[in-house]
Specification:
elongated; 11 helices
Length: about 350
């Protein structure tokens, strides 16, 4: 009995050691898993808390909602709206400028170009019925200088303005980013520095011709026949016909919007909030695209569209045939006045000059 007791003790110790080692290994392997268990338990508790309290608000979401809403905070930086971290109106402005303004404005310009091309192909140039060889003065030297000054300035501003609006979509694929960047660096200062001289010339031009563009009763007859396109003959017209008067008033109101908005964009310190600057930029882009579209019609009719118009704006004089055909009421005033017609050819040359 004593020998059995003595020999059983080493076996019991070995068994205890093996059990201890095995338990230690199991615990060592199981302990890392407790982190995952705790994590999953925490997620479950969070989900249960959110489900039980649907009205609970994420403080981080509430913070960024306040930031994007333009709530002012403290900033050591001085300046306009320095306390506003994010002005969410900028995203709205970008969406409107790159969306409806660019799409509808660009579409309007393309539609006008297609309509003018179709008119020229189908009907051709509006030619003079006859030339007398005698001319009457229609434009003074000052009027012609102001017209060409405003026209050339407007063309340059249109090219640079269109480049800034549609450059990313149209010019970068053609010129590359480096080429467009170089052009934009040139176009932007040209657009800025030329804007004020253009605005001054436009004001002078509009005021100079304001009295001659007051609507008259006979203008409605001109509009009903579309300047002679419907029916026979040309309807009576004064110094400016009804179509020219419509163009004048479109330029008048569009020019006011373009000039006022451009002034605020050129001098941003006059405004106090960025929201106003974004508004004026939308007005400037929309009015500019509109004026470009309607001016295309004026350029066409004043050059290759109607015979005799361009030579009058170049020399100041128009043929009597042009005056009778397109501005009969004004011609009667000139004929009954003290300004005689100038003779440029012998009376027998009238038929030879007819187109």
């Amino acid at each position: 009995m004593r020998e059995q007791t003595i020999t059983s003790k080493p076996r019991g110790r070995r068994r205890a050691v093996l059990v201890t080692v095995a338990v230690s290994l199991l615990v060592a392997m199981a302990l890392p898993l407790t982190g995952y268990v705790a994590h999953e338990a925490g997620l479950m508790r969070t989900a249960q808390a959110q489900e039980s309290d649907e009205e609970a608000v994420n403080p981080r979401a509430e913070y960024w909602r306040a930031v994007r809403g333009g709530v002012e905070g403290y900033s050591a930086v001085t300046g306009q709206e320095a306390g506003v971290l994010i002005q969410n109106g900028g995203q709205n402005w970008r969406a409107v400028r790159n969306g409806p303004i660019s799409f509808y404005g660009g579409s309007f310009i393309i539609i006008v170009l297609l309509a003018l091309a179709a008119k020229h192909i189908v009907k051709g140039r509006d030619k003079l019925e006859s030339r007398t060889g005698r001319t009457v003065t229609r434009w003074s030297t000052f009027e012609r200088i102001m017209h060409w000054y405003v026209a050339i300035s407007f063309i340059i501003l249109s090219i640079t303005g269109l480049s800034l609006i549609f450059g990313r979509a149209l010019l970068i694929p053609l010129m590359g980013k480096e080429g467009f960047a170089a052009w934009a660096q040139l176009a932007k200062p040209i657009h800025d520095y030329l804007s004020l001289p253009f605005a001054a010339g436009l004001v002078v031009l509009l005021l100079m011709w304001l009295g001659k563009n007051v609507p008259k009763a006979y203008d409605f007859d001109w509009l009903k026949s579309l300047g002679g396109a419907i029916g026979d003959g040309h309807p009576p017209a004064g110094f400016f016909n009804a179509g020219e008067k419509v163009f004048y008033w479109l330029v008048f109101f569009g020019g006011v919007a373009l000039t006022v908005s451009g002034f605020y964009l050129l001098f941003p310190n006059l405004e106090t909030v960025r929201e106003s600057m974004q508004f004026w930029h939308i007005v400037h882009s929309a009015s500019g695209l509109f004026l470009i579209a309607v001016s295309l019609g004026h350029m066409y009719l004043g050059s290759i569209g109607t015979e005799g118009v361009l030579e009058g704006m170049v020399s100041g004089d128009v043929d009597e045939g042009f005056a009778k055909q397109h501005h009969s009421l004004w011609y009667e005033e000139v004929k009954g006045g003290s300004a005689p017609a100038k003779s440029e050819a012998a009376p027998g040359a009238s038929s030879a000059a007819t187109t």
